[in-house]
Design brief:
disordered N terminus, alpha/beta, three-stranded mixed β-sheet, 2 domains, 10 strands, single chain, five-stranded parallel β-sheet, 16 helices
C-alpha cells in the first residue's frame, strides 16, 4: 500500500462510528417502500418497483443485523446488485433516485459510464466511481461504504460484439468497454478498493480504501438493438421469430423476464459472462404507454410549469388536447417520459416569451387550433 493510502477503514474500531448512522436508517417494509415510491409520483413498472423495494429493504435490514445485532456476515446473504434493462425514458434511474436518495436518504451516486475507460487510456479511472460516492457522502468514507452506486448507460460498455475476445484471443488492452468491464468485476463483488479522495488524474491525490461488500450496484441500460440481435441469433424465449420482425429494432421496446434472464443474449451484445454473473437480479422495464405518459405529464411535469407561471402572477392553463399532442409526440420519438418535458417546452416557448413580456398578463391558455398548438395571453 502506497504512502498516500490510509489503512482499510472498516476495522472494528472504525465500524463502531457507523452505529448511530445505521441505527437512524429507516427500516420500511417492501410494501411501505412501494407506497412511498408511488407517492413520489412514480408511474408504472410494477415488477421493477416491487423487486427494487425488496432489495432496498434487504439492504437496510442486512446493515442493521450486521452493525446493530452483531450477526456474523457469513450467516447472511451477500449484498445484491441489480441490472435494469429497458428503453430510454422508462424510469430506470428515476426509480433509483426516488428510492435510495429521497426515501431512504442513503448516499447515492448516478454515474454516466460513457465517461469511463480502461486504466491507462484517456478518461476516468473506474475507481473514481467510488470517489463520487464519497462526495455524495459529504466526504465521509464510512457512510459511503453503505451507499448505492447507479451505473447509468451501462450498455455503452459493450465490447462491440468482438467474438475473438470471448474466444480468448483478446489479450491486448481494449478501449471499447471490455477493459472497463474487467475492472468492474472485482468492484461489483466484495473488494477493498484504493479510492482517490479527489476527482483528478493525479497519481499523488490522497487515497483511502473502501470495501464494496456493503455497496449495492444498480446498472441501467437501454440496450438498444438487443431485441433485433435476439431475432438474428435466435436467442429468445416464448414466441416465434416472426413475432420479432421489424419493430423490435425500435428504441421503445419491452423485454420479458425470460429474455433478460437468458445470459447469452447479453454475451452476444458484448458483455463478459463473469460480469453478468455479478448481478443477482436482471429486471426488465417496459416502454411506457400513452395513459402512463399522460399521468406522468400531469404529476411530474406540468405542475412545475404551472408553479413557475404562478410565481410570475400568471395562471397557466394547458387544455387536454394539447397534453395529448405532447404525449403522442413523445411516443413517436420513442423517448418515453424524458421527451415529454422537452416537447411541452417547445410548444410553450413562444407563449411564455409573450406572457413574460407583458407586465399586465394574468392568464396564459394553450389550446389546439387546426391541429397545431396556439395560445392566448390575457
Amino acid at each position: 500500500m502506497s504512502s498516500g493510502t490510509r489503512a482499510v477503514f472498516h476495522s472494528d474500531g472504525r465500524e463502531k462510528q457507523l452505529l448511530p448512522y445505521i441505527e437512524a436508517l429507516p427500516l420500511h417494509t417492501p410494501r411501505q417502500l412501494e407506497t412511498k415510491i408511488r407517492r413520489h409520483g412514480y408511474v408504472g413498472q410494477d415488477l421493477a418497483v416491487r423487486s427494487t423495494a425488496l432489495m432496498a429493504y434487504r439492504h437496510v435490514s442486512r446493515l442493521k443485523k450486521i452493525y446493530l445485532k452483531a450477526v456474523p456476515r457469513e450467516r447472511l446473504p451477500e449484498k445484491t446488485n441489480l441490472l435494469f434493462v429497458g428503453p430510454t425514458g422508462c424510469g430506470k434511474t428515476h426509480l433509483v433516485e426516488i428510492l435510495f436518495r429521497s426515501i431512504l436518504n442513503l448516499p447515492t451516486v448516478i454515474v454516466d459510464m460513457t465517461t469511463y475507460s480502461e486504466t491507462g487510456y484517456v478518461g476516468q479511472d473506474v475507481s473514481s466511481i467510488l470517489t463520487r460516492l464519497i462526495y455524495a457522502s459529504d466526504l465521509n468514507p464510512l457512510t459511503a461504504s453503505v451507499g448505492i452506486v447507479c451505473l447509468d448507460e451501462f450498455d455503452k460498455l459493450s465490447s462491440g460484439q468482438n467474438n475473438a475476445v470471448f474466444a480468448g484471443a483478446g489479450t491486448t488492452k481494449d478501449v471499447s468497454g471490455l477493459g472497463v468491464q474487467r475492472e468492474l468485476l472485482k468492484m461489483l463483488e466484495s473488494a477493498d478498493v484504493s479510492v482517490p479522495m479527489e476527482l483528478s488524474h493525479s497519481d499523488y491525490a490522497p487515497k483511502t480504501v473502501i470495501s464494496t461488500r456493503d455497496i449495492p450496484f444498480v446498472a441501467c441500460g437501454a440496450f438498444s438493438g438487443l431485441k433485433g440481435l435476439m431475432e438474428r441469433t435466435g436467442e429468445h424465449i416464448g414466441f416465434g421469430r416472426a413475432g420479432l420482425t421489424g419493430p423490435q429494432d425500435r428504441i421503445a421496446v419491452s423485454y420479458t423476464v425470460d429474455e433478460v434472464e437468458l445470459t447469452r443474449n447479453f454475451l452476444n451484445f458484448g458483455f463478459l459472462p463473469e460480469l453478468l454473473g455479478r448481478f443477482g437480479r436482471i429486471i426488465p422495464f417496459c416502454s411506457l404507454e400513452e395513459e402512463q405518459l399522460v399521468q406522468i405529464l400531469h404529476l411530474n411535469v406540468l405542475g412545475r410549469f404551472v408553479n413557475e407561471f404562478r410565481q410570475e402572477g400568471i395562471e397557466l392553463d394547458v387544455e387536454k388536447p394539447v397534453l395529448r399532442l405532447v404525449v403522442n409526440e413523445s411516443l413517436k420519438k420513442e423517448t418515453g417520459a424524458r421527451g415529454i418535458e422537452s416537447s411541452l417546452i417547445r410548444h410553450l416557448e413562444d407563449a411564455a416569451f409573450e406572457a413574460f413580456s407583458q407586465p399586465r398578463a394574468s392568464r396564459l391558455r394553450l389550446m389546439l387550433k387546426d391541429g397545431a398548438v396556439d395560445y392566448l395571453v390575457t
